[in-house]
């Protein structure tokens, strides 16, 4: 689109991260603008009942909310690629939170994936929110650089995640951003904010 950017139309299948089973199919449009963040619109047809998905999310949320001792962990996965079973919920939450960071940092020519959680710490709250601090490593392709990001997220069930982050790459460039992510294929909500 002259003077605006490039628009892509995508159709793709989704799978459940843990089981590898088919989750549904999606159609998306991505508009890479010349001078701002990409605009993403997505619509998905789920192969699993939405009520069942809500129940699974609710169980996951209750598990995190009812921790009496904060979850504190390092190196997820470990140097052999293993994740302790009890830390799978922490890994899942980091994947959802980091997807916002990756969306904001990605361009038409570079992409990211979550390589490792260096450190995770849960903050026990008296309200209904789940709160975590993460130090994560994002692997950039095709450059193969590793970006270290400090990511803070808050989740209240039924609401989008609030994600704030600061990243530095191997060449010490400082990027920052913050926003919200719904954590589902229903769509994303972004809101710029300050550093944390």
From TrEMBL:
One of its GO terms (cellular component) is extracellular space. Signal peptide: none annotated. Residues 1-52, 72-176 form the Cystatin LXN-type domain. Keywords: Protease inhibitor, Repeat. Belongs to the protease inhibitor I47 (latexin) family. The keyword Repeat applies. InterPro entries: CYSTATIN_LXN, Cystatin_sf, Latexin. Residues 174-196 are annotated as: Disordered. This is OCX32 protein. One of its GO terms (molecular function) is metalloendopeptidase inhibitor activity.
